[in-house]
Every structure is written in structure tokens, then in C-alpha cells.
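Next comes a single protein record:
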Amino acid sequence: MAAPEERPEETREETPAGLPECPSAEGSGLLPPELRAWMVLLAATGAVEQRLRAVVKERLDVSHDEFLILCLLAEHPREGLRMTRVAELLGRPKTRLTYQVACLQHAGLVVRRSACGDKRGVEVALTEKARGLLREASGTLAETAAGALAHVMGPEQRAAVLGLVPGLHEADPA
């Protein structure tokens, strides 16, 4: 049996076992920098979504898509948003959004009302129940998101994203 080949210590962080390396924003492949950056963002987004799904279901008892609606509404605490704007921001068809909002309304997490001055427009806003659930779960959700980003991104990408995700420097990449 041959002895394992000795390798000099690598100076960069290793990719966790079984995972391909995240696309590099500074790679020398065929893609221009804008597309490489987009690929890094897609990998990061996918990792966060994958890890958040179970936590969101456990802590809030909603689907990931419903969670995204709650997050959008959380950024507009009192006034709510028009349904057309929510659909636009999430890139979802209005019919799918109507179903998801109905599920959230049935769970007591959102209210729907006519838009002020426009009988055809519908606004949706968080209920106090939803605000409380989001407050209670926010720490766990933030740690989950930061951990997923740290797991997928290399040190250079983490440094670039640090301004958007303040807890990223403390996150455990495991």
C-alpha cells in the first residue's frame, strides 16, 4: 500500500466535504465578472433558502414562499403593501400570490383590505400575531441565513457581502 502523498498546507479555506467550491467572483473562466457575481449570488440564495425552509416551517408554520411575503410586509410595518407590488417584488404570478395570501390570512398572519381611494386595489398587512412570531423567530432565522452564507461563500465573497449581512463575520460555516 502506497503512503499518502504529502501536500503543502493550503492558504485558503477548504470547501466543506462533499460540496463543490462556490463559483469565484474573480475566476478566470469563460464568464464575464457580472455573470460570475450573479452565480455567486444564486449559490448563496439557494443555500439560504434550503436551510431556512425547515426553520421557517418549524418556527412559523408557513411555507418558504409565504415567509417571503411576511418578510416583505415586515419592512412595511403598519401601512402594508398592495398585492400587485408584492407580486412584483417577489416575481410571482398574482394568482399564486392570491392563494398564498389567503393561506396567511386563514392562519391569522395577514389582513387584506381595499386600497385607500381605489376600490379595485387590495392591500395586505401583517397582524400583531405575525409581528410577534417574526420577533420571536428573528434571531434563529438570522443565524440560519448567516450560517448558510458563510457555508457557501469564500472569504472574499463574505467580505463583500458583510455590509448587507452584519452577522456574517460571526457565522459558523458548518
Summary: The radius of gyration is 20 Å. The first helix runs from residue 33 to 60.
